Amino acid sequence: MRTATRGPATPPAATRSPSGGDPAAAGTATPGTAAPDTPAQDTATRDTASAGAGNADGTDPRPMGRHLLSAADLSLDEATLVLDTAEELARVSQAATVKKLPTLRGRTVVNLFFEDSTRTRTSFELAAKRLSADVINFSAKGSSVSKGETLKDTALTLEAMGSDAVVCRHSWSGAPANLARWVRGSVVNAGDGTHEHPTQALLDAYTMRQRLGRVEGLKVTIVGDVLHSRVARSNVLLLHTLGADVTLVAPPTLLPVGVGAWPAAVSYDLDAVLPTSDVVMMLRVQRERMGPAGERGTAYFPSAREYARRYGLDVRRAQALPDRAVVMHPGPMVRGMEISPEVADGVRSTIQEQVANGVSVRMAVLYLLLGGAQPAIGSVPSEPGRRGLS
Amino acid sequence: MTATPSTPSPVLPATPPPATPPPGRPPTPAAPGSRAVLQGSDVLRVVDRIAHELLEKTGGGQDVVLMGIPTRGTTLARRLAARMAAFEGATVPTGSLDVTLYRDDLRLKRPRALEPTAVPSGGVDGRLVVLVDDVLFSGRTVRAALDALADLGRPRAVQLAVLVDRGHRELPIRADYVGKNIPTSLGESVHVLLQEVDGRDAVLLGAAGEQR
Amino acid sequence: MSAWLLRDVRPYGEDAVDVRLVDGRIAELGRDLPTGDSRVLDGASGVLLPGLVDLHTHLREPGREDAETVETGTRAAALGGFTAVHAMANTDPVADTAGVVEQVWRLGRDAGHCDVAPVGAVTIGLAGETMAELGTMADSAARVRVFSDDGRCVSDAGLMRRALEYVKAFDGVVAQHAQEPRLTVGAQMNEGVVSSMLGLTGWPAVAEEAVIARDCLLAAHVGSRLHVCHVSTAGSVELVRWAKSKGWDVTVEVTPHHLLLTDDLATTYDPVFKVNPPLRTAADVEALRAGLADGTIDCVATDHAPHALEDKEAEWGAALPGMTGLETALGVVVETMVAPGRLTWRQVAQRLSAAPARIGRLDEGPSPQGRPLAVGEPANVVLVDPAASWTVDPRQSASRSRNTPFAGRTLPSRVVATFLRGRPTVLDSAIVETAHAGPGRA
Fold first, then answer.
1. pLDDT at A162
2. Which residues form the Aspartate/ornithine carbamoyltransferase carbamoyl-P binding domain (chain A) (predicted)?
3. Under 8 Å CB-to-CB from B178, ≥6 apart: which residues?
4. Which of A53, B1, B74, C309 has a CA that sits 20 to 30 A from residue C85's CA?
5. C window 217-236, beta carbon within 8 A of A
6. In 3D, which of A25, A6, A111 has the Cα closest to residue A63?
């Protein structure tokens, strides 16, 4: 074994959040978590150590990572570590006659779902159970419309239960970030409002790597309702970190104002982008986004037919893709509108893969957050900022 | 043991290990204050002896699977298989067995990156699995390996081969094949260096704070 | 009433003098005044300003006494150097009748910490449909002059036009909360780069600017005056500059938080930074400061919006918008405008006292506010230590609520003493606990 290297020095917290927080504030955010660096004798530390030089006194200048709230919480090294770990876990799971590893025995993972999502919840549940963690499913129906007291009360309840990790799905953007301030354990964002869904992005990247051998340098086209898609946000951030070139294709009404600052190109013309795409990711388009103006505002496009004509992936368009290109869909699909049945059936194999990959990736995330004395990935939420213009 | 460099003078043509370590792995320098207990040809000889013992005790390597514990255990397993093939033409499948997820000391450190687990195509069921590691110390790694192995199948029997046994067992575990017993104090560290990984072969005994 | 002698104070931050307050008025200004039988307050060369006037305060009473009461809100006001505040109409019940506005006015008078001038709702129940009895509120004991549906926009152009016309009869003004509702369905924060990343529905600048443009044109058309609440964007400043260049009677306010804070604070998802209109970009902040400096923006108003804990300790989307601001307003203005040399203390007095009093017509009547520091004027004054600084601690606030976005921030200058018609409401930066003494705005 090599002699000890310094612990992971990490870029300032500000560069890790989407638009930057206050570095000074973030740096002092959690005095309680600034644990002294353990001698880096293990490979995990070595793998995350390349981001920069450690402090001369051997302390980690960054508060220990704790949460996975955004894909931006992962550095290149951390994201790669997650994917590598998921790959090994998949291999072990495949080889093993017993599908359960003892790694997280005695740890408690709470699935806190304020929004229905059987697929994601089951995936996390299976991941935790395969690592022998105790799993508590806590579904808080209807709480999305009630006051946030519910969230805080729930958080305090979980705290009293001594949960080590909370996997949180919520209809409001940022709810997992709020939760992270109220619980001591790690919080994993399992999809919050129209913000992010980082483990979905990880499993998408994993699937790309599996199919195409790499992520770096891939041309990935994300098509559809970018404005409301947490999958799109997480994918843009993670794929950028991993060195892919992302192009967003959507009607202008379904792209957020400010998208120009994202690390992605933007096009309104699907046909122009397809021939050079290695991966096409079709986002779900919700039907309530179209039609007449109502309580929820004005429609984003006139009709399903027009949407399908301009942005749907039909057989003809799919033929324009390079031979090795992969079509992905986070599901559930709206057949006929965003993807034609023929293409959808071709995509199905990827979807099956993605389900299996989802478990491996979530196992990796839980292992890297909970498997040791300190999490090996993730971030601490920054403190309320302390700055204005001056 | 002397610390003078020695040129390899094998009895049989040694398995040619890569001349240079893999990229990204610079030759491991001796830690300051450490001294070589074995080096160069010593290590080769010890490996050869274990290979001979294996052949002898397993009826020529019949049904044997060598499962190395990464990183250096895996390398040693491959070397042993190559030597067994060279001595008696035995074809012994090798694999690697990462025990990280089964360790009982996980919570003392940050989560470690996983090392590869690779099971030979014939599997382990009904076979004589020989676990291979570089250093036997507390026995906890071997305990974890036994658990990991149990999840992979049901071997007929499990044996243990180590290059160095440094003592201080914390569990009722012993090795079936030992390259060299090196009495150590708890405060000392033992490092095994292998050509394929570290750029040279050696066993180093060092001061405190450097053990694995 | 006893007399007070304020020794060694600098009116408007200029030359040091002594000031004597007798019987609710400024009796003498001069060097080395004899003590006589006056009680003496050593000003230590602090800055003396006319009592501050807030055009935009939410006192929450009646209806949400758990968040704020007239008593607690006016204590916070006095500590912030205010001698008068306008109490917004979005209470429960809404202040859309003479009965409610008189109740609020009486509660203010009884509390005695500062004058409370109720704002009347423009429309019944703030529903934006039927004009409330504006004239009756104007004629009531509360003498309402400012009418606003604040919290909601009077978005119907026809209704807005009628309201602007109608209040001319009693020299009233409509204070518009400029927010086009169809452009802000579900809006959570400024629409821009940050909202795009955070997945929070955007509140575009144009939703404010479109209404301001329309209302300026309406006010010009019917020859009314218009006041615009809490302008927050660079575009709004430009529009107001244009309207003023036409000679139209348009006034606007800016909040302290919009002078200092920017939308990237939302990256914490801490709802203490959720406010309506939302925090904008650094470019907007700079335009607001420039507008306040050159007089395009007439005044600073706090939009003090206290909220109970459960309404703020929530998910961003579920939390109520609003920030407290009475105690921090002057400090923020000093930090953003005075310290960088963009406003003199005399201009601070204009923007935080004279202008808002004039807009609300509080500078008239038997006990006017916002008057200059001159002999014979009402003794509404505030003494500020410009060299002091203090760190904002929500737990120390006199407000019943804790939702200050400035928590932990160190602000320059400190209110040492506040006098309401010659009676100290604050001394040594603490509330003077006495039964109310003054007649209020009789």
1. 83
2. 66-210
3. B136, B161, B162, B164, B165
4. C309
5. none
6. A25
CA–CA distance, C300 with C53 (Å, rounded to integer)? 9
User: What pLDDT score was predicted for residue A380?
Assistant: 66
Among A225-239, B7-21, C295-309, C350-364, the least confident range? B7-21
Name which CATH class applies to C4-48+376-431.
mainly beta
Closest-CA residue of A relative to B103 is A103
Q: List the single residue in C197, C204, C313 with the smallest CB-CB distance to A18.
A: C197
pLDDT tens-digit profile of A11-39?
333 333 333 333 333 333 333 333 333 33
Interface of C with A in 271-330 (CB under 8 A): 271-273, 282, 285-286, 289, 310-311, 313-319
Distance from CA of A263 to the nearest CA of B (A): 29
Task: Give the tokens for residue C292.
Answer: 């306040």
Q: Does residue B106 sit at the A interface (CB-CB below 8 Å)? A: yes
* C296, C248 Cβ separation under 8 angstroms: no
Residue ranges per structural domain of chain C: 4-48+376-431, 51-359
- Any catalytic annotation for residue A169? yes
ipTM: 0.90
Whole-number percent of chain A with pLDDT over 70 = 75
Q: What is the mean pLDDT of chain A?
A: 79
pLDDT tops 70 at residue B3:
no
Domain that holds residue A211: 198-348
Closest CA to C87 of C102, C104, C100: C104
Q: Is B30 on the interface with A (CB under 8 A)?
A: no
Residue corresponding to tokens 């570095």: A23
Per CB distance under 8 Å, which residues of A are interface residues toward B?
1-4, 38-39, 41-47, 81, 84-85, 88-89, 91-92, 95-98, 100-103, 131, 367-376
* Class level of CATH domain B46-107+114-185: alpha beta
- B neighbour chains, 3+ CB pairs within 8 Å: A
Work out whether the CA dihedral B74, B78, B81, B87 comes out positive or negative. Answer: negative
Percent of the residues in chain C that have a pLDDT greater than 90, as a whole number: 96
Domain locations along chain B: 46-107+114-185
Check which CATH number belongs to the domain holding A285 and give it: 3.40.50.1370
Residue C175 and residue C177: Cα distance in Å, rounded? 7
Q: Which residues of A are annotated as a binding site for carbamoyl phosphate?
A: 119-120, 169, 197, 200, 331-332
Looking at residue A165, what is its pLDDT? Answer: 93
Give which of B176, B34, B152 is closest to B95, Cα–Cα: B152
Residue-wise pLDDT for B14-69, tens only, equals 444 554 555 555 555 656 678 899 988 999 999 999 999 999 999 998 999 999 99
What is the assigned CATH class of domain C51-359? alpha beta
Residues of C annotated as part of the active site: 303
